[in-house]
Amino acid sequence: MNTKAIVKGLQAYTTCDVADALLKLKVPHGGFLAGLTMWSPTRQEGPTKAIGPAYTVRYVRKSYENEPKPSGHYIDSIPSGAVVFISAPPRMINACYGGLMSTRAKYLGAVGTVIDGRLRDLQEHRDLEYPVFARDVGTTAPQEVVRVSEINAPVRLNSEDQEAVINPGDILIADINGVVCIPQSLAEKTLDLIQSQVEADEKVAADLKTGRSVADAMKEHRANVKQP
């Protein structure tokens, strides 16, 4: 199954559905990337969903002279359908992504941006109705302290709580619950597992509304859930 078909298939599901499937596939934390939440088009509200292959951008401190220096601006080479993943150095005060970047990304067909760091120009992103997920907001542009070092290379999540790497082409899904990264090699298996577990949970929910116990409902309906 190609990437477009997988992305289309995932549209019906939430990040929680995907994380449940990834847990069965032994992906740590079900692929959840902690600390990244929705800021645009609204703050943690509504049905916004961004799903697509990761297009990664890594920022480094300006003092790191030995790091690569790509030519051109990363924003001009975003593939249509991609989710842009911006990696900023830990504990960075400056923002690393602003309204002009979303303007260009949306024009090129990107479906959303995830920022492992701060964003700025929040109202501009919202006016564009462009999905943006980030750690926090700020006011100051990045060039004072950082520069882009790598484009479409593996990046590590800046977290003291977990070890996670986002590779170019991994499928990112982001919604009101957070951001989940599906390893490219497991994307088809993940989609294959989701439907039966979602159907089982819908049946459990229906039973609970009639007064049935959780234990009994789960025992009946989850017994036949597809396994890896």
From TrEMBL:
Entries under Gene3D superfamilies matching the protein: Ribonuclease E inhibitor RraA/RraA-like
Co-factor requirement: Mg(2+)
Keyword Zinc among UniProt keywords: no
CDD domains: RraA_family
Binding site for substrate: 98-101, 120
Superkingdom of origin organism: Eukaryota
Entry GO MF terms: 4-hydroxy-4-methyl-2-oxoglutarate aldolase activity; metal ion binding; oxaloacetate decarboxylase activity
Positions that bind Mg(2+): 121
Keywords, sorted A to Z: Magnesium, Metal-binding
Database matches in InterPro entries: RraA/RraA-like, RraA/RraA-like_sf
PANTHER family xref list: 4-HYDROXY-4-METHYL-2-OXOGLUTARATE ALDOLASE, 4-HYDROXY-4-METHYL-2-OXOGLUTARATE ALDOLASE 3-RELATED
Protein name per Swiss-Prot or TrEMBL: Uncharacterized protein
Species this chain originates from: Saxophila tyrrhenica
Lineage: Eukaryota, Fungi, Dikarya, Ascomycota, Pezizomycotina
